[in-house]
Amino acid sequence: MLVFVSGIIKYGERVWALKSASRKGLDKTSANPSSHEDTIDDVLTCTKESYALWTVLIARGFFVGRTMLLMGQGPASTLWFYFKTKYQGREEKLKMVMMELGMMFDLLYTKANVLQRRIGVLFLCASQALMVVALVLFMIRREEGAHNNKVNVAITYTLFSGAIFVETCCVAAAIASPWTRAHLKESSCLHGLSDSLFEAVHLCKSTANNMAQFNLLDHCISVNSKPRVFSKALSAIGLDKQWYVHHMDKQCYWWIINRVLEHLATLPDEFSGLATVHFTINAPTEHPVWFNQLSTSFEQVLYGLHLYTDLHLSRHFNNCSTGSVVQPPPPEIMRLKEECETLSNYMMYLMVVHPSMLPVNTVAAGDLVQQLIGWVTNHPGHGATTTKLAILRGYSRTFYILGIDEPGQHRSFYYLHHLLTQIKEMWVRLLMYAAGKCSGEVHARQLGEGRELITFVWLLMLHHGLGDMAAEFKLLRSNDPNVAERGAWIVSPPGNYQEPTCAFNHVTFVVHCKRNVSMLFTHTLQQFFL
After folding, report:
1. CA distances from 507 to 168, 295, 480 (A)
2. pLDDT digit string (tens) for 82-101?
3. Which domain holds residue 263?
4. What's the CA gap between 383 and 377, in Å, rounded?
5. Which of 22, 139, 413, 436 is the right S-S partner for 467, CB 3.0 to 4.6 Å?
6. Boundaries of each DUF4220 domain copy (predicted)?
7. Which helix (H) or strand (E) holds 501?
8. Residue 89 lies in a domain
C-alpha cells in the first residue's frame, strides 16, 4: 500500500510538470510581467544562477509568443543590461547562455519547476520516506517468521534497492540543480553541498549541442547512385532526408558561436535593447546580382548561396583532397573552408529537416530540393563518380548559379582568404537573421532534441536586444531612398518608432576609370550590419 501511494505521488508530480510546461500553463504563469520587477534589484546583486533563473522565468512568455514590449520596460532592459555589464568575457557569456538553455530544458521537459516549490519538496520527501518505511516493514515481517519464496524475497529487495537509489539520485540532482542554487544564499551550509554535487554532475553530464549537416548535392548524388527501391523505402518510413544527415564535432560549433559573439561585441556601450543600431562590414562586390538574390524569398537565398558555396569549394579545394596540389593552402584558409562548408550544410539541414525554424515556405523549399534531385536523376552521366563541379556546370545551363561564369583558374591565397571570409560573413548574417525570426515556441519544441545552434544564437541575440522578440528584424534594406522604412514594434523613450534592424544593406557608390575619367556606375555594395 505504501509503495502504491509513493507511485501515485510520482505520477502526480509528472502530471503537474506536464501541465505547468504546457502552453496554457506557461501562458498563465507569464501573463503578469510586472510580477518579476520587484526582484530585479535582488537579481542584479545575486549569483549567476539567480540571473539565469530570472531569464528562464521571463522566457516563459517568449515560449507562448510574447515579445519584450509585452513583457514591460523593466524586464526587457534588465535582460540586456545585466548580461552586457556583468559578463564581459566571452567564456562567461557562453557559460551563462548554456546554463539558461539547460534550465529552459528543465522547465519544459523535467520536473525541476515542480521540485522547486514547497509542495513539490514535500512530495519528494514523502515519496522517499514511504519507500523506506515500506522496506523497513518488509524486513520486520521477515524477522517475525513470515514464509516467502527466496526468489520473491530477492526480487523484492532488488526492487526496493533500485527504487531507493533512484530516489536518492533524484534528491541529489535537485540539490545540484541551478534552480536550487539560485535560491540558496552563499553563506548557507547547503550551498557548499550544492556546489560539490553540481561539479560532480557537470563532469558526468554530456550536453547535446546539435549542429547537423546536410549537403544537397551529396544527397542528390547518393539518391541517384542507390537503387530506387531503397530510396522509396526510406521515403515511406520518413527517413529520406534524415538518412543523409551527419553531425559535426563541437569545435566547429564553438567557432561559429564565437563569430556571432564578435558581431554582437561591436554594439556600443550606450546601446539599449530597445534601440536600432547600424554597423557596416564590407561584403563581396564581385556579384552585383546578389542584390536581386537577397530580394527573393528566403528559401531561394539559402538555396542559391548553398550552391554558390559548393561551387567555390569544389573549384578551389578538390585538388587538396586528392593530394595533387603543389602548395596546400595554409591552415587559416582550411579553417575558413571548414566553417563555410559547415554553415552552408547546417542551414540547408534546417531548411530540409526543420523548415519550421526558418522563415521559409515549406512547399517552395521542398520544390527546390526536388528540382535539383530530378535534374541529377534525369541527366545521364551524373552518377556517383561525377564531381560537384561538373554537376553544377551542367545544372547552370538550365538554372543559373551565381559565380558559375567566374574563371576557374587558380587564384592567390589572398583572394581565396578574402572570398571565404565574405562567404562566411554572409552565412553568419543569414543564421542570425533566421534565429531572430524563429519564434520562441519553435525553439522550445526543438530543445527537447538538444541545443540547436540556431537556438543558442537566438538567446545570445535576445540578450543584446536583437530579433523579432525585441525589435523588428528584416533581411534586406531597400536601395531606393524614396522608400520609407516601416517602424519596429518597440518605441523609444522619446516616443518615436525605431527603424527595423536589417541583416543586409545596399547602397550605391562611384567607381573611377583608370583613364582618369570619372564615370558613375551604380553598383550593389552589400554591407552587413546589425
Report:
1. 64, 14, 9
2. 777 677 678 888 888 888 89
3. 212-272+289-437
4. 9
5. 436
6. 2-218
7. strand 501-507
8. yes
